[in-house]
Amino acid sequence: MIGVIPKADQIAVAEEFFQLFKTPWEIYEPGRTYDVVVATTDEIPEVDTRLLLIYGSAAKSSDARSGIAVGSRHQGASLNYQGILLPIYGEVRTFEERSAGIPCVTAESGMAGLRVRSADSTVMRLGYDLFHEVQLLLSAGQPVEKAHIPTLDIHIMMLRNWILDAGISLLEVPPSPAGHSFVVCLTHDIDFVGSASFPDLARGSVSSVRVSRLGERFLGSFRLVFTSRKGSARHLLLDSFQEAHWRKRGRATWVAARRRLRYHRPSTVDGDSDAGRV
Q: What pTM does this model have?
C-alpha cells in the first residue's frame, strides 16, 4: 500500500496520477504502517515505512535529519535518469555534493535526486514536485519540441523502479497485455441521437418496422453488455476490488478484469534499471 501526503490543493491531481499508475494507494493516515510513502508537502512527518519518496524544490523539514544539504533552485530543467531525458517544467532544486546518499537523478547544474539508505528504510529526495508536474502535463501539456517525450510515463516508470529497487513487491494493473508493448481499443459510442442523425425520421417517412428495429438494436447492445458471461462490463465491475484490504482501506481508482493484475517482484528490476516496465 502506498500512503500519499500531497499538498492541500494536490489531492485531485494525486487521484488523476493513480488513475494512470494503477496500484493500491490512499491518503496517508498518521499511525499507519505503509510499504511506500510519497510526499510533496514541506513538513514531512515521522512515518513508518520502508520507502519514503520526498518530492519538491522547497527545503523540507526532513532534509537535515536525512543529511541532505539543499543547493540552488532553477526554473525548469532537463533531468537525466539512467540516460533517459526527463523534462521538468516547474522549479528544480539541486543538492550539494556534501549531502548524504548517492545520486539517482542528475541535472546540468548538479544532483537533482538522492537515495539515502539506512538499516531498515530508504529515503528518496527528489528536487521537483511530482504532482505539480503531473498537473502541468494534464492541463497545459508540453511544448511542441518536447511532444515526442512520454514525460508522464517516465514519471510513473521511475516511481515503479524505485519501489521495486527497495525490495518492495508491487501489484499493478498494467496498461497493456503481457508480452505486448501497447494495446489498441476500438469503441463505438453513441454520444448523441437526434433527428439530424436519422433523416428518415426528420422527414416522417420511416416505417414503424424500422423504428422497432432501431429500438431492438439499442436494447440488444445493453443486453449483450450486462448479461454476457465473459468479458462483459458486468463482470469487469464484479471482479474489481479483488483484495479485501483494498475494499476496506485503499483508494481503488480503477476497475480490473480477472487475471489481468500484474504482480511485480523486486527481482524483476536489476538495480535502477527499467526492466520492470509494463
A: 0.68
